């Protein structure tokens, strides 16, 4: 059953990943990307990383992909023109892909061979509490790291204050600057006045 | 873990953050009208936090009793002394700000709240005993600082300063994070105590890279050369009370943090970071001294002066000894007073329309038109130059003494030579004020709070300040000793 689910999610993910690249309509691309995220979340659940799965759906689907969608729809990007340069830049793209692949192989190889010393756990870290990793993470965040977690909240608050302070302007009166009391208080004598400007001087308003 | 003891150690931070939140609600409901009230309330809160910290500094708190939250936070005498300076300097910024922004018609109710949160971030920084605490404190302080730099959003220079600070600060944070993740990867822990154990028998290449990047990121925050490029532009563009704040409190916090990382986490490997610190110290002194010479704007000049002073402070750290750390704290305390005094004097320079005067040439003949201001500024300049009867000399003296005792005689000699170059531009200001033809630009009315602050600073750096040598030296020694318990 697990094997079947794995191949289903994996195949769907690769297919939607490919369709993300090949879709002609950019909005469809983003929608395929969202499907890929969902399938990746399914894979995470299978390996028992349910917190990561939820994070992927909440953060990537809920925020990032929707943001992409807004950007794609609001900015009128000419994708046909961008695609025209595809063949020209293809060799560069392939080169970068090869370099990344080589780095991955080297990194994993070095780690497997024991050439990288990534430090050794000395058992001083807190033991895992509870069964699921959501419980463990919660116990850490609200236990061991409570102070840092709450301080990080204040950082976000400061970011919000900053955004509002720097961009918010008090709304001006939507009905223009009409002041009825002032209009009623006008009297004909002050409303007009006679001036006789000198030649070439113009009128001062 | 006992939460109650941890929370008790955090009392000053809790006071500042809770009152920051309450004042934010007040600001949200009553708007900019309440700005003056919130400034006063925020200054009172900082005074309260000052009073909460003071006992631990006076008793020289150290050891395991000062560790909160399982080693993430450390409220010892070293952190306490830095916090005293931070709260005092932030309070000074709150005292001078309302009048300045009031004249520009841009006093925002959020200004004092951002200063409070910046102070909170700085006090977390100096108490950090873990790389994560370090980063969270630093970001809290930096984010508030970016907004403060741009708070005059209709002023082009202020907006430019904010943007520049934000972009370069973000880059520095990235470098710092990179170093931290390398350190974590190769030491296996983010705790300073754990790192000290991991590096006890020699640094691996990865750890050395981590250390270098962490130091580079922190050097940006204290504007030490070669990471100083942003300083003159940001200091010139930011509103003067904000510049005064930048030049005082965050410097204290970042330097105390640098000392903690070097002496606590990498204390056993001092040879590795001493080279870096010595290089940054000498370069800062020379660049600060030479860069200031051609400046026409007082705020730019003071920016270079602060780069120069950071170099002298780093000499204290470069010794790697407890005497050096103690000398560094003494210098920092004197530097904060001198900086606040100089910027308040700049704030007092206004023309007939009440606009700020920032050009050095406008100071000509100040001694005949505004003798009191001219004499105060002269005392501050001589003190910054380190000329003996004034207190600024003492700071340089203890730092060089510590360097000589640690056998860094060449470093001390070059430092002294460069401080002579630095004296040139300080004395140039005095010459312009006392011997040039009066231009009578500075005619604006003065504010009482500014004068009071300037008088306090002038009194502290005057020869009377030497009465403080005993108590200040004691506090600094106890602070440095509390660092020794940790490493």
From TrEMBL, chain B:
It catalyses: a quinone + NADH + 5 H(+)(in) = a quinol + NAD(+) + 4 H(+)(out). Residues 128-422 form the NADH:quinone oxidoreductase/Mrp antiporter transmembrane domain. Its EC number is 7.1.1.-. It is a multi-pass membrane protein. GO terms for molecular function: NADH dehydrogenase (quinone) (non-electrogenic) activity; NADH dehydrogenase (ubiquinone) activity; quinone binding. GO terms for cellular component: endomembrane system; plasma membrane. It is an enzyme of class 7 (translocase). Pfam families: Proton_antipo_M. GO terms for biological process: ATP synthesis coupled electron transport. The chain crosses the membrane at residues 6-30, 37-57, 77-101, 113-138, 165-187, 208-230, 275-295, 301-323, 330-349, 372-394, 406-427, 451-469. It is found in: Cell membrane; Endomembrane system; Membrane. Keywords: Cell membrane, Membrane, NAD, Oxidoreductase, Quinone, Translocase, Transmembrane, Transmembrane helix, Transport, Ubiquinone. InterPro entries: NADH-Q_OxRdtase_suN/2 (IPR010096), ND/Mrp_TM (IPR001750). PANTHER family: NADH DEHYDROGENASE. Belongs to the complex I subunit 2 family. NDH-1 shuttles electrons from NADH, via FMN and iron-sulfur (Fe-S) centers, to quinones in the respiratory chain. The immediate electron acceptor for the enzyme in this species is believed to be ubiquinone. Couples the redox reaction to proton translocation (for every two electrons transferred, four hydrogen ions are translocated across the cytoplasmic membrane), and thus conserves the redox energy in a proton gradient. NDH-1 is composed of 14 different subunits. Subunits NuoA, H, J, K, L, M, N constitute the membrane sector of the complex. This is NADH-quinone oxidoreductase subunit N. It comes from Aurantiacibacter zhengii. The gene is nuoN.
């Amino acid at each position: 059953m697990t094997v079947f689910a794995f191949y289903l999610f994996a195949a769907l993910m690769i297919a939607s990943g490919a369709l993300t690249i090949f879709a002609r309509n950019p909005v469809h691309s983003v929608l395929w990307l969202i499907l890929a995220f969902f399938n990746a979340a399914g894979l995470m659940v299978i390996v028992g990383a349910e917190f990561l799965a939820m994070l992927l759906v909440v953060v990537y689907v809920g925020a990032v992909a929707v943001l992409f969608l807004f950007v794609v729809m609001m900015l009128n990007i000419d994708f046909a023109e961008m695609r025209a340069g595809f063949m020209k830049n293809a060799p560069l793209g392939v080169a970068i892909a090869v370099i990344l692949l080589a780095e991955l192989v080297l990194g994993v190889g070095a780690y497997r061979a024991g050439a990288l010393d990534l430090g050794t756990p000395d058992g001083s870290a807190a033991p895992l509490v509870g069964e699921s990793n959501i419980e463990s993470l919660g116990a850490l965040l609200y236990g061991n790291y409570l102070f840092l977690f709450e301080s990080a909240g204040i950082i976000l608050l400061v970011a919000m204050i900053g955004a509002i302070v720097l961009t918010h302007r008090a709304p001006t009166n939507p009905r223009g600057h009409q002041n009825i009391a002032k209009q009623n208080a006008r009297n004909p004598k002050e409303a007009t006045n006679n001036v006789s400007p000198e030649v070439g001087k113009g009128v001062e308003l | 873990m006992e939460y109650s003891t941890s929370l008790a150690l955090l009392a000053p931070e809790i006071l500042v953050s809770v009152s920051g939140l309450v004042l934010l609600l007040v600001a949200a409901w009553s708007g900019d009208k309440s700005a003056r009230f919130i400034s006063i309330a925020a200054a009172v809160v900082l005074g309260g936090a000052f009073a909460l910290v003071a006992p631990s500094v006076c008793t020289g708190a150290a050891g395991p009793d000062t560790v909160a939250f399982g080693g993430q936070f450390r409220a010892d005498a070293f952190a306490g002394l830095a916090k005293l300076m931070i709260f005092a300097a932030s309070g000074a910024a709150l005292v001078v700000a309302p009048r300045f922004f009031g004249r520009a018609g841009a006093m925002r109710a959020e200004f004092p709240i951002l200063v409070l949160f910046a102070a909170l971030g700085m006090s977390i920084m100096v108490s950090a005993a873990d790389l994560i605490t370090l980063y969270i404190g630093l970001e809290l302080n930096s984010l508030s600082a970016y907004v403060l730099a741009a708070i005059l959003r209709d002023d082009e220079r202020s907006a430019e300063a904010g943007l520049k600070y934000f972009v370069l600060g973000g880059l520095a944070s990235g470098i710092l994070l990179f170093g931290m993740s390398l350190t974590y990867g190769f030491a296996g822990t983010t705790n300073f105590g754990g790192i000290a154990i991991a590096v006890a028998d020699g640094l691996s290449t990865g750890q050395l890279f981590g250390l270098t990047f962490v130091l580079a990121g922190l050097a940006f925050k204290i504007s030490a050369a070669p990471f100083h490029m942003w300083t003159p532009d940001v200091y010139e563009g930011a509103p003067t009370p904000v510049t005064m704040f930048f030049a005082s409190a965050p410097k204290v916090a970042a330097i105390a943090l640098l000392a903690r990382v070097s002496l606590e986490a990498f204390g056993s490997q001092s040879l590795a970071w001493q080279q870096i610190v010595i290089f940054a110290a000498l370069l800062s002194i020379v660049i600060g001294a030479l860069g200031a010479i051609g400046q026409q704007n007082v705020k730019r000049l003071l920016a270079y002066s602060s780069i120069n002073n950071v170099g002298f402070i780093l000499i204290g750290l470069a010794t790697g000894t407890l005497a050096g750390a103690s000398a560094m704290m003494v210098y920092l305390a004197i530097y904060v007073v001198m900086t606040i005094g100089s910027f308040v004097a700049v704030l007092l320079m206004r023309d007939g329309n009440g606009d700020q005067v920032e050009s050095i040439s406008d100071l000509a003949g100040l001694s005949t038109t505004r003798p009191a201001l001219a004499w105060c500024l002269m005392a501050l300049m001589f003190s910054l130059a380190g000329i003996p009867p004034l207190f600024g000399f003492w700071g340089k003296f203890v730092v060089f003494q510590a360097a000589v005792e640690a056998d860094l005689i060449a470093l001390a000699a070059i430092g002294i030579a460069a401080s002579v170059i630095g004296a040139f531009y300080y004395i140039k200001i005095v010459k312009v004020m006392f011997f040039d033809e009066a231009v009578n630009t500075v005619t604006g009315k003065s504010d009482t709070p500014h004068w009071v602050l300037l008088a306090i600073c002038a009194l502290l750096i005057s020869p009377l300040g030497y009465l403080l040598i005993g108590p200040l030296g004691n506090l600094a020694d106890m602070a440095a000793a509390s660092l020794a318990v940790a490493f």
